[in-house]
Amino acid sequence: MREHIRKEARKDVPDIRERIKAEPSYRTFIQKARQKEPRRGFFGKLRLATAGTFAVLLLLLFLALPAGREDHTEIFIEINPSFTLLLNEDDEVEAFIPGNSDAEILFEAAGSPVGMMFEDAIDMLFDKGVELNFIREGESFILYDAISADKALEDRHLEMLEHRLASLIVEKARNVQMARGLGGSPTEKELEVTEDYGINLMRARLIGNILTQEEDIEIEDLLDKSIRELLDKIDGHHRAGPPAGEDDYPSRHPFDNDNLPPNMPGRNPMR
Questions:
Q1: Would the pTM of this model clear 0.90, i.e. be above it?
Q2: Contact of 20 with 28, CB cutoff 8 Å
Q3: Alpha carbon distance 101, 83 (integer Å)
Q4: Selection from 248, 240, 213 nearest residue 76 by Cα
Q5: Closest residue by Cα to residue 125 from 137, 138, 112, 140
Q6: At what angle do helices 53-64 and 188-197 cross, to 10 degrees?
Q7: Residue 238 burial by CB count (10 A; 0-12/13-18/19+): exposed, middle or buried?
Q8: Which mean pLDDT values do the consecutive 10-residue runs of the chain (271 residues) have?
Q9: Which of 88, 82, 142 is nearest to 107 (CA)?
Q10: Can you give the residue ranges of every domain in the chain?
């Protein structure tokens, strides 16, 4: 089944996303999420349905991506909307993958960035994020990352992203902070953590790395910490950044790490 999804994705990644959105289970998720919390403003903000439907769909969407292709880069962005953009070597957006219901709101309000040039897509999504109050002057923190099998392509797209975000912050949302996080496709354990604690993926990875380093701290102690406070705890580094090697710290998948204390999520079933 997984290989079939990957084969279909190589033909038309956006089509995979549209087919998943057309599934009855997806529509059920959206209906439940909209009933979960009153709408705020014109579009409102949705919360994740607790039934786990969205987590399954998110994992399916990531499996559908043409993983490991050297001519593509995955761009991961978390504001509160959490989403992934798939770029080709011509800097064109080939797919938008939502990571939470706020990202669905952003997508519906801004329109699809698929087919747009990367920087134009970032401009559009940033502008709509400001308009919907997802990006707030002096309050918001943007985490981002770029991953590609082609290191030169990854570096180029990462530089483009950092330069454009920095310019947009100066122009439209002063005192918003940004830092490179730990992107990458989620594992099943990470999806459990994000669902059970209601947090985004890159925030969860920062927390997981802190838990592996500080034995006396509980996950509940970190849930209300700001991104800056979490980054400051990551071994004294202000940039999370990708590890230099597989066993280096910080880890992209800390909740899959045997170093977690026995009572921490990822070591025992959470349900």
A1: no
A2: no
A3: 10
A4: 240
A5: 112
A6: 140
A7: exposed
A8: 44 48 51 43 33 47 52 92 94 93 93 96 97 93 94 95 96 93 86 88 91 86 89 62 51 73 39 25
A9: 82
A10: 2-180, 188-256
